[in-house]
Design brief:
By secondary structure, this protein is of the alpha/beta class. The chain contains ten helices and twelve strands. Helix 1 crosses helix 3. The longest helix has 31 residues. The chain is elongated, with a radius of gyration of 31 Å. Pfam families: HTH_1, LysR_substrate.
Length: 305
C-alpha cells in the first residue's frame, strides 16, 4: 500500500462495529444511518484489501485479520487522544493566568524561587496572588476565585482538599535589644508582664492562641490590637511591645532587627497546607504551579526556620 488513505472516522466506525457486533447499534452510537456506516467500513476494507468482518443476516463478527487489526487501532486511537490532550495542555501553558491565594507569610518563604522558575518556563502566563487572611484565602478557594492556595485553615472543611506542607511553632517576636531576646525558649507565664500586641479576635491566629491559653492561669495583657500581622511587627520593631506570632510570620528582611523565641507551656503550632476545592480539576498551568510548589517545599524544608 503506497499511502494510508483512510480517515479517523473510518477507524472509529470499525471500533464501534467491533464493540457492538452490530451495524445497527454501532450506527445509533455514532448518530449515523446504517448505509453511511456500511460505506465507511467498506471503504476501510477496500483500502486495506482485506475483510475485517464476517457478516450474515443474524450476526457480525471480526475475521482473524480484523481481530489483530482491532488491537492495533485501539492503541493508535489511545495514543492519538493522548497526543491531542498533550497539545491542549501545551497551549494552556503558553498563555493564560493562574490565581493563587495564600496567607502573607507564604509569600516570603514559599513563592519567590518557585515563581521565578515557573516564569522562566512559561513567560506568557500571568500569576495573580491574593495574600490575605486565612479566612479570606479559604473563601476565595471555596468560591472558585482562586485555583489553589496556601493556608492553615481548611483542613476540617469537607469541600477542601488539604495537603500538609509545614508545621510551624509560635514564637515571641521582640527587638534584638529586648531583655528576653537571648532566651532559647519562654513559657507564657514568664511573659505575662510584657506589653502584648495582638491581632483582632476575628483573626484565625488570635482564635488559635486564645484556645490554647484557655487553661493558662495568667494571661498576657494585650495593649494594642491590629488587623494584620504585618502591623503587629511594625509596632514591635518600633519598640511598642512584644507579640506571639507564627515563626514564618517573621519575614527575612526583619530578622536583622527582630528575634523570635519559641513559646512553651503550652507550645502552640499551626500546620500550613496546599489547599484546593475538592473535586475541582485545575487548569494545566495551575496544576503545574501547584506541583512545582509541592516539590520545592519538600526539597527545601531543611532550610526553613
Amino acid at each position: 500500500m503506497g499511502r494510508i488513505n483512510f480517515d479517523l472516522q473510518e477507524l472509529q466506525a470499525f471500533v464501534a462495529v467491533a464493540d457492538r457486533s452490530s451495524f445497527k447499534q454501532a450506527a445509533e452510537d455514532l448518530f449515523l444511518s446504517q448505509p453511511a456506516l456500511s460505506r465507511r467500513i467498506e471503504k476501510l476494507e477496500d483500502t486495506l484489501g482485506v475483510k475485517l468482518f464476517e457478516r450474515t443476516t443474524r450476526r457480525v463478527q471480526l475475521t482473524n485479520i480484523g481481530r489483530g487489526f482491532l488491537a492495533n487501532v485501539r492503541t493508535a486511537l489511545d495514543e492519538l487522544e493522548g497526543a491531542i490532550l498533550g497539545v491542549s495542555d501545551l497551549a494552556a501553558h503558553r498563555t493564560g493566568i493562574v490565581t493563587l491565594a495564600c496567607v502573607p507569610s507564604a509569600v516570603h518563604y514559599f513563592l519567590p524561587a518557585v515563581l521565578k522558575n515557573f516564569t522562566e518556563r512559561f513567560p506568557k502566563i500571568r500569576v495573580r496572588i491574593h495574600d490575605e487572611s486565612a479566612q479570606d484565602v479559604l473563601n476565595l478557594i471555596l468560591a472558585g476565585e482562586a485555583d489553589f492556595g496556601i493556608n492553615f485553615a481548611g483542613a476540617e472543611d469537607p469541600e477542601i482538599d488539604f495537603k500538609p506542607i509545614y508545621k510551624e511553632s509560635y514564637v515571641l517576636a521582640m527587638r534584638h535589644d529586648h531583655p528576653l531576646a537571648r532566651r532559647k525558649k519562654l513559657s507564657w507565664k514568664e511573659t505575662a508582664n510584657e506589653r502584648y500586641i495582638a491581632v483582632s479576635k476575628s483573626s484565625g491566629n488570635r482564635s488559635l492562641i486564645d484556645s490554647a491559653l484557655a487553661g493558662v492561669e495568667k494571661h498576657p495583657a494585650i495593649f494594642y490590637e491590629v488587623n494584620h500581622v504585618s502591623g503587629i511587627l511594625a509596632l514591635v520593631e518600633a519598640g511598642m511591645g512584644v507579640a506571639a506570632v507564627p515563626r514564618l510570620s517573621l519575614p527575612p528582611h526583619m530578622q536583622a532587627t527582630l528575634v523570635g523565641v519559641p513559646l512553651v507551656n503550652p507550645p502552640i503550632h499551626r500546620t500550613l497546607g496546599l489547599i484546593c476545592k475538592r473535586g475541582r480539576i485545575m487548569p494545566p498551568a495551575a496544576q503545574t504551579l501547584f506541583d512545582m510548589l509541592d516539590q520545592s517545599i519538600k526539597n527545601d524544608k531543611k532550610s526553613l526556620p
